[in-house]
User: What shape does this take?
Amino acid sequence: MSKARDSLKSARRIVVKVGTSTLAHADTGKLNLYRIEHLIREIADLHNAGKEIIFVSSGAIAAGMNKLGVKVKPQTIPENQALAAIGQGVLMHIYEKFFAEYGQTIGQLLLTKDNASDAHARENSRNSLQAILDMGAIPVVNENDAVAVDEIKIGDNDNLSAIVGAMTDAEVLIILSDIDGLYDGNPKLDSSARLIDEVTEIDAEIERMAGGAGTKLGTGGMFTKIQAAKLATANGVTMLIVNGATVGNLRRALSGEHIGTIFPRRDAS
Assistant: This one.
């Protein structure tokens, strides 16, 4: 076992990011309640074991589309903002229900780029997250898509989760994706594509392996995950990409199993 994977066992503060492609059924776009409940149960149990979990969740626009019966994601900013405003409430209602069933309290925090780039706003966001954790609750973080425009958008929750990890001095960021990790080719097109176990340096070759957006619902493809890995590892956060469709992968990753792709922080390779 590598030093980086072995260190995951003792990690106390962990950011878990889940994408829309993990939260929703691919064929219908409707929320995958089975997968959501199992993920929340796993997070709740890790919290019971003494871990501090910060949950970064996509899915607000998809939830809004589902609520209103919209089949195709709109192209205009106001329509997407409206769907996010509607969907955020839907998503939080589901999260509140499932987390409460497993004895957990959650607190929502919506961020924009200003919260990361402006020093005063960044400190306020950090303090708010810390206070939620100190109260024994689980922060649920998303970008504030209901009001954000291009000038203040981070743009994807992969990079948002890396920002949150750096902001809170997290030890680990786990990105739950619809793919097993980073491959040296496109596994959907090339059956010989090989899963890369560990990436110690993100160079031009690694960036070349990353593709565009993966699904019609999500905004982040592998390229945004590589960007997030750069940001996370530079700030002392080890990052993993694992498949969120497999129940138990979160716990398996944190036990040091060789699943997914790990990007060790600078001093952990």
About this structure: The chain has one domain: 3-263. Residues 212-220 have pLDDT under 50 and may be disordered. DSSP finds eleven helices and seven strands in the chain. The domain at 3-263 is CATH 3.40.1160.10 (Carbamate kinase).
